[in-house]
Each structure stands twice: as structure tokens, then as C-alpha cells.
Amino acid sequence: MQRDHRPREKFEQLGADRVTDTELLAILLRTGTAGQSAVEVASNLLRVFETLQGVEAASLSELRKVKGIGASKAVEIKAALELGRRLLTRPLARGASIRCAADVFNACRARFHSVPHEEFVLLCLNVKNQVLKEALVSVGTLTQSLVHPREVFREAIRESAHAVILAHNHPSGDPRPSDADIALTRQLADAGSMLSIKVLDHIIIGGDNFYSFLDHKML
Q: Domain check: are 142 and 175 in the same one?
């Protein structure tokens, strides 16, 4: 059998970076079906869902509709992709320095990848803009993150934070702030001022783009 049809051996001999998405999926699948190799089943998966991101976003029932994908294989695929997502979404290390909005974007975008609802994250910082804690403050709906100043500043006070940075996602992929986002940011900035905890920025992440309230002189 040619090496291209033996993805496990190709992985071992050439390394992970030389293996295609189709071959990685085939390694997960391990076996194919009558008349279809694991590589062919994997190729069909990517044809149906177009990309790995599409496979990740698919439900278990949608995966099972693809020939060669039963209940067990569907769960194994979703579990492997979820492990990868969790690895990328580990919280910022305590002491990590935040210098600009791009630092927050690069640290948080994997966390929000493929999340179908809005999530609101708080970064508590010391006087040197080093991370004291990254905290998930709330989980909202498809179009709205439900946040109250009490939840935001409870974490900040607990960490004796000098300042905070706010971040949340727009599942639509458009990072431009809504009227509600603008009103919330002002409310939180005012609350922080009363507590002597400065809101340095609010970053909205949509897909591969972000909006910084500070960069747009909205704070």
C-alpha cells in the first residue's frame, strides 16, 4: 500500500506537520467500511463539512449521516477536536504581560473559536498590566452576553486588581460593537471608576478580527 494511503505510518515517519487534515481524520477513524478505506471516509467527511472547522461545528447526528461514521466514531471525532480546543483555551498564565489589544485578541480568540453563544471574559491586572487572573464572568445567548457589574468587579476585588480588561465574542463574526455593548462598557467603566479599578479596554472578538474600545477612543 502506498504511504499516502497509510496515514499512521506517514505520521510516524515524516511528522505531524506533513500529514493532511484528511489523513489526521483517518488516523482518528482507524478503520473504514466495506468498500471504503479510512482515508476515503475522512475525505468524504471533509467534502460534506468543507473544513475541520465545519466538522467541529457539526452535531453528532450530522456526523452520523456521513457514510462510515457511526455513533462511536462520531463521539471520538468530537472528543478529539474538543481536546484540541481545550488545549488552546487554557487561561492566560498569572504574570503574563498585556501590552496592547492584539495581545488580548491572540490570547482569547482560540477560546471563542466555534462558540455558538456570547461569552464574557475578565482579565484582572496588577499595576504593571500583568495578569492576576482570567475569569469567565458569564455565558449568554447567540446575540447577547448577560453581564452585571457585580459579577465583573467581584472577581476584580477578590484579586486586588489595579485594572481590568473586558473581552467577549460575537458568534456572528462581526466584532463591531452593538449599542448594548457600548452602553455596557460605559456602565462598567463608571462602576470601575467608583471602585478605583480602571477599565483599560473592552475587546470584542469576531472570527479572526477584533474591535478595541481603547484603540477607537471609546474609553
A: yes
